[in-house]
Amino acid sequence: SVEQLPHYKGWPVVGNLFQVERDRPELTFSEWTKDLGPVFSVKMLHKQFVVLGSFDAIYEALVKKGKSLSGRQNKHSFRLDEITDHFRNIVRSQVTDPSWKKLRMISHKKIKMYDTGMKRIEGISRDMIANLLEEFQNTSQRSFDPESVIYNTVMNVIMCLLLGQTFSVNDDIFKKMVQFEQSGIKAWAQAGRGAELDLCPWLRFFGNETYKLIRHMVELRNQLWERMKEEASRGDHLLKKDEEDLRLVSALRDTLAEDGSELSEKHLRAHVMVDIAFAGTATTSNTLCAYLNIISQHPKVQEKLQEEVDRVVGVQRIVSLSDKGKMPYTQATILELLRFTSVAPLGVPHMPYEDTVIQGKTVPAGSTVLMNLYHLHHDEDFWENSFEFQPERFLDEDGGLVSASHPNRRHLMPFSAGPRVCLGEVLAKTRLFLVIASLAQKFNILPGEVSTSCDPRLLQHGLVLSTAKFEIVAKEREIRV
Ligand code: HEM
After folding, report:
1. Dihedrals phi, psi of 472, to nearest 5 degrees
2. Cβ neighbours of residue 5 under 8 Å, at least 6 residues apart?
3. Quick one: which atom of ligand 1 is closest to the CA of 104?
4. Given CA atoms 454, 458, 461, 464 in this order, what sign does their dihedral have?
5. For ligand 1, atom 15, which residue shows the shortest CA distance?
6. Three-state DSSP class for 221?
7. Nearest Cα residue to atom 37 of ligand 1
8. What ipTM was reported for this prediction?
């Protein structure tokens, strides 16, 4: 059983609850890995977890034994059941569920991972980035908090994928989407806040605050879905003859009409709201916000990025995805950003379908397994100066990007790996590249009037890791010839 794995003795009933840093459990787990080894167990109240802490353990679990370790817990979560109508959307389904395969396939196809799809993401992102640059310019070099501009840009790319169009921040549908996402972040805040509802669903009869948030989300979800269906059908006649309808909502709607489809409309609604809107916004926008704070404090990195973008793209045209291959420093900066910030520090819990031996220790079937990706990315025994932001760790002596088989690249798994690898990896990386390179081309990002440390140990944990409030100044670069 899980208790046979190395562990620290806890207290009766509460277990290790008070020994674990509540807001940043991955920091405690990183320390414990040093003593307990790469596979250990933790008990917090009635829940027991297996924590994997080293590259070898995580790689073995996700990739080598990914098939037996790619389950999700079957246990009910009152909060999620309410939002998803008890449907297991992608994040929650088993890899053996036909709906998991089907939804991943449709969404993959529409968020396309290849050629034309990448071009489409680029096309969508382009307008949004133009808007972002304009917003930065409109600050007229005054100190400002970039959070909402970044957030709106990221959210609008998602809206465009879903519906083929962008919305003004004042549009009702956009406002509701933001409210849905923000309420979700509060309702699923890290380390148990809100988790009391999963434990004691009857608390909802006693004015529980999380329950109020969940009800609000359910209402928003229903309204948004109706609006999305409306928008999708309205757009139909705008398509030219034989033109492919690229909108994800349309593709999902067509699937419903297929004979024998195991999906219902409620399933699709849950998928769109949780797997795409929810999972696709906070992760990327928090990574980009962290970037702005970091870059404002690392002028040398910024200079090198600018030097590269000036050389490859110049000033006349906008940044294109086809520039990426010629911009190793920018790519290295993005890899370093993903390592440094590790916005999803413990990934999403996995469940072994059968007893599985990891690094010589048996991880029991049905247990809840956490991958400490944060530790993988900050382990001081592996990464030199792991708490310093150094894109150079992903470059070779000639300034080229190290190959995917280089140990530093292999030790980087911000999107996890194996059968359950993040659905939005390519979309996220594409947006990061376009935004970061476009900002370097146009602006010097300087510290503003409100400053905060960019040390990853000091990031805040909501649903994902985020930077405390800060401001920057976006100074337009001089015209270069
Ligand atoms: C910087 C951005 C992002 C990071 C760091 C990130 C990270 C992750 C991680 C660590 C997982 C857990 C995988 C596992 O269970 O082992 C995950 C899963 C997932 N992500 Fe992301 N993600 C990002 C962006 C996105 C975007 C843009 C989308 C959607 C448009 C998305 C959708 C999903 C979905 C649906 C899953 C569940 C996959 C499954 O269970 O089969 N993510 N992500």
Report:
1. -135, 170
2. 39, 40, 41, 50, 361, 363
3. 41
4. positive
5. 348
6. helix
7. 91
8. 0.99
The C-alpha angle 123, 418, 437, rounded to 5 degrees, equals: 30
Is 420 near ligand 1, meaning CB less than 6 Å away?
yes
Does ligand 1 come within 6 angstroms of the Cβ of 343? yes
**Spatial distance between the Cα atoms of 39 and 53, rounded to a whole number of angstroms:** 7
DSSP string, 275-340: IIIIHHHHHHHHHHHHHHHHHHT-HHHHHHHHHHHHHHTTTTS---GGGGGG-HHHHHHHHHHHHH
Closest approach atom of ligand 1 to CA 371: 16
CA-nearest residue for atom 1, ligand 1, is 284
Give tens-digit pLDDT for 254-299: 877 776 677 788 888 888 888 888 888 889 999 999 999 999 999 9
Nearest CA to ligand 1 atom 40: 91
Ligand 1 pocket member 302 (CB < 6 A): no
Query: Does ligand 1 lie within 6 Å of residue 91's CB atom?
Result: yes
- Tell whether ligand 1 has an atom less than 6 A from the beta carbon of residue 284: yes
pLDDT in tens, 122-179: 777 788 889 899 999 999 999 999 998 998 888 888 888 888 777 888 888 888 888 8
* Residue 404: predicted pLDDT: 95
Cβ neighbours of residue 286 closer than 8 Å, sequence gap 6 or more: 341, 343, 464, 465, 466, 467
> Does ligand 1 have an atom closer than 6 angstroms to the CB of 412?
no
| Ligand 1 pocket check for 424: Cβ under 6 Å | yes
Residue with the smallest CA separation from ligand 1 atom 34 is 423
Q: HSE (CB half, 13 Å, CA atoms) of 22? A: 8
Compute the mean pLDDT over every residue in the chain, rounded to the nearest whole number.
Answer: 88
| Amino acid (1-letter code) at residue 186 | K
pLDDT band at 323 (very low <50, low <70, confident <90, very high): very high
Distance of CA 113 to the CA centre of its chain: 17
Q: How far is the CA of 396 from the centre of ligand 1 (A)?
A: 29
Q: From the CA of 404, how far away is ligand 1's center (Å)?
A: 20
Extract the runs of DSSP E, i.e. beta strands, from 212-274: none
Asked if 276 and 162 touch (Cβ cutoff 8 Å), the reply is yes
**Ligand 1 binding pocket includes 428 (Cβ within 6 Å):** yes
- Give me the mean pLDDT over the 224-250 stretch: 73
* Token duo for residue 44: 């917090």
In angstroms, how far is CA 310 from the centroid of its own chain? 30
* Length of the chain (residues): 481
CA 380 to chain centre: 24
Ligand 1 geometric centre to CA of 284 (Å): 10
- Closest ligand 1 atom to Cα of 91: 40
Q: Which two tokens stand for residue 17?
A: 């609850």
Q: What is the pTM of this model?
A: 0.92
